[in-house]
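Progress note, sequence design subtask.
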């Protein structure tokens, strides 16, 4: 599995709308087959981010959303005591430049994706000059 969630994204994007199955990316295979073609049986995947352009003090804050046809709705993926921080990557802290100036790389594991139908990555904040991001969901 390798899903490109963002491609050269340079601005914030909104949260998905309730019941809207046209945004994000499918995690399930062909309807009615009972097989899941995009998520490993373990449900574990890595979310990988990389800046593709930018300068200045670059940062990014990202929220992962999942969709369930069981409730016909999107939900932020992850637990946090406050709603504003629920689903945010990097323990709800902006991802900053690393390993060097004008470069951001980040990876974290996401588990349990086999329980959901779609995935969407929201950029909630972006800092720096002309900062751009690619993001992937990778499973083996």
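Output:
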């Amino acid at each position: 599995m390798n899903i490109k969630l963002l491609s050269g994204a340079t601005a914030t994007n909104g949260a998905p709308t309730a019941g809207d199955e046209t945004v994000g990316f499918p995690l399930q295979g062909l309807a009615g087959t009972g097989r899941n073609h995009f998520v490993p049986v373990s449900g574990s995947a890595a979310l990988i981010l990389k800046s593709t352009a930018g300068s200045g003090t670059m940062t990014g804050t990202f929220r992962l959303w999942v969709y369930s046809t069981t409730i016909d709705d999107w939900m932020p993926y992850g637990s946090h005591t406050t709603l504003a921080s629920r689903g945010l990557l990097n323990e709800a802290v902006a991802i900053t430049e690393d390993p060097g100036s004008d470069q951001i790389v980040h990876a974290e594991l996401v588990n349990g994706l086999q329980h959901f139908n779609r995935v969407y990555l929201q950029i909630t904040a972006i800092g720096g000059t002309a900062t751009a991001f690619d993001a992937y969901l990778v499973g083996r």
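The chain has one domain: 2-138. Work on this subtask will continue into the next period as scheduled.
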